[in-house]
Design brief:
2 helices, alpha+beta, eight-stranded antiparallel β-barrel, Lipocalin
């Protein structure tokens, strides 16, 4: 009898706790309108890297020396290509340019990075105005990345990203400082 009462109390405690700290289901993450045939124009243009989350700090270590990153996404020469240019402002003030090409996977929402066959990127919508979330997985890592059209989105957007990724087993969180002026994106 005692065990049944104890089990019932724990059950109700679990229900109450779950109602207070609700985490969205994986299915509530909405993949963006990538149909595997061409990349929607609404996602092209300039983006700022705001925050990252991952199960461990090591999976975010590549962003530790970064102050800010600005990206430009452009349609590639084929409808299934996406050209990405970035300029990374390091905390020491240096500007580091980067380029890479994503390939849309037909029949999927996955993006594959040219030259990195182990890497998969999925795009998700964000309830934050001008926001987008990526889930990158590769050999030995998984991380969520939050981007916005503004270099300084509302704080509630960052908190929402942190809360959501925490529910998805991300224990480490990184917020880019964005204290320095962004580097200029090169045109080539």
């Amino acid at each position: 009898m005692f065990h049944q009462i104890w089990a019932a109390l724990l059950y109700f405690y679990g229900i109450i706790l779950n109602s207070i700290y609700q985490c969205p289901e994986h299915s509530q993450l909405t993949t963006l309108g990538v149909d595997g045939k061409e990349f929607p124009e609404v996602h092209l243009g300039q983006w700022y890297f705001i925050a990252g989350a991952a199960p461990t700090k090591e999976e975010l270590a590549t962003f530790d020396p970064v102050d800010n990153i600005i990206f430009n996404m452009a349609a590639g020469s084929a409808p299934t290509q996406l050209h990405l240019r970035a300029t990374i402002r390091m905390k020491d003030g240096l500007c580091v340019p980067r380029k890479w090409i994503y390939h849309l996977t037909e029949g999927s929402t996955d993006l594959r990075t040219e030259g990195r066959p182990d890497m998969k990127t999925e795009l998700f919508s964000s309830s934050c105005p001008g926001g987008i979330m990526l889930n990158e997985t590769g050999q030995g890592y998984q991380r969520f990345l939050f981007y916005n059209r503004s270099p300084h989105p509302p704080e509630k957007c960052v908190e929402e990203f942190k809360s959501l990724t925490s529910c998805l087993d991300s224990k480490a969180f990184l917020l880019t400082p964005r204290n320095q002026e962004a580097c200029e994106l090169s045109s080539n």
